[in-house]
Amino acid sequence: MLLSDTLLLATLSSLLGLCVGSFLNVVIHRLPKMMEREWQAQCADLRGEPPLPAPPLSLATPRSRCPNCGHQITAGENIPILSYLLLGGKCSECKTAISVRYPLVELMTASLSGFVAWHFGPSLQTVGALLLVWSLIALAAIDFDTQLLPDSITLPLLWLGLGFNLAGTFTPLPAAVIGTMAGYLSLWSVFWLFKLATGKEGMGYGDFKLLAALGAWLGWTMLPAIILLSSLVGASVGIALIVFARHGRNIPIPFGPYLAAAGVIALLWGKQLTQGYLGLIY
Questions:
Q1: Which residues contact 157 (CB under 8 A, 6 or more apart)?
Q2: Model pTM above 0.90
């Protein structure tokens, strides 16, 4: 009975993940543009100028359109994954290719949502883990595109993690609070040590806040595993880009996607990883 309930929950969570993934594509595309408009308005205000006229833009309006021809996406053309396949990956109006990342985000969100529900079963942990994973997917994609980790996602995510851990959902509240402080201060310290040594900024403040949020959700004991995993993957990808893709050494590489990936791994298998490396030490 429990197996059938868990399977049903995982299936429903995957279907929900498809819909959430479609919404995350909107967030990934529009939120940086909304932030840019806000910054422009603030700069204009400081100069004593009126803000530049622009059509309204939010996560809800206007309706999604083809960026090439402006064709308004209909409900039938907005079904996660299925619409992309039926349209052959092209706009129905101008036949411009649609980025494959849209269905990939939907597929990733659906797959991780189903696996999270299967992993945690019918529990409050599943609810929290889904919210965490969805936020990390959005943050990773936005940082990959723009090298920004919006406060409008990282800060609510931090407080939400502390809220879930009021009842010890993932870790005791003291461990969550310490994890928040340690997560922020650890990368903050690395940032300033690197800047003092080289005169350059090695990472952004959004990375501090993201690691603090992961500490709030998973506790301070998971931070070493998260930092180690994200650093190893980030270093490997960075070296590969420099060697094989001729990526310039002075061109920054976003660290947020690696932190997000390490956070998901720690969420699902963090205890086993922690026991493993502690076993190697002792």
A1: 132, 135, 213, 216, 217
A2: yes
